[in-house]
Amino acid sequence: MAARKYGRKAAKKVSRAMHERKSGTLRSGRSGRKVRSRKQAIAIGLSEARKAGAKVPRKRRSARKKKSGRRAS
Q1: DSSP-assigned states of every residue in the chain
Q2: pLDDT of residue 73
């Protein structure tokens, strides 16, 4: 049997964030805008869990964007 990928503390943080999103009280970062997206609520919960030292896998590195081929000459 495989070990848990996410710890129980992480699950608690994510579920709290989801409840806040449902009730309309979850806000994001510096802007303090209301969070409507389910994915964003999960991301907020996981980042809080990371800060709290819970067992959460590391963030995946985003693929680097290619520079556009057109250049001003």
Answers
A1: -PPPSS-HHHHHHHHHHHHHHHHT--B-TTT-PBP--HHHHHHHHHHHHHHTT---PPPPPPPPPPPPS----
A2: 61
Separation of first and last alpha carbons in the chain: 60
CA 31 to chain centre: 16
Q: Give SS3 for 27.
A: strand
Read off the tokens for 45.
């919960």
Q: What is the pLDDT of residues 30-52, one digit of tens each?
A: 999 999 999 999 999 999 999 99
Q: Is the pTM of this model over 0.85?
A: no
Token pair in block for residue 43: 């991301």
